[in-house]
Amino acid sequence: MIAPLPSAMPRKANVIHQQILAALIAQPSRSNRLAQNVSEENVDRMAARWIR
Description:
There is one protein chain. This protein is mainly α and 52 residues long. The chain has a domain at 15-27 and 36-50. Helices cover 44% and strands 0% of the residues. The protein has helices at residues 15-26, 40-50. The relative contact order is 0.19.
């Protein structure tokens, strides 16, 4: 059995997801109240799911 070939076009990452991750990664001391509850593990988990 032959394995299916990967898609020729890579999946484009969502711009909003990129901006959220960039803001969470760039600021270790998060000034936004909602961002203060996000742990580094959750940031890594989101990055792995959103940007493949």
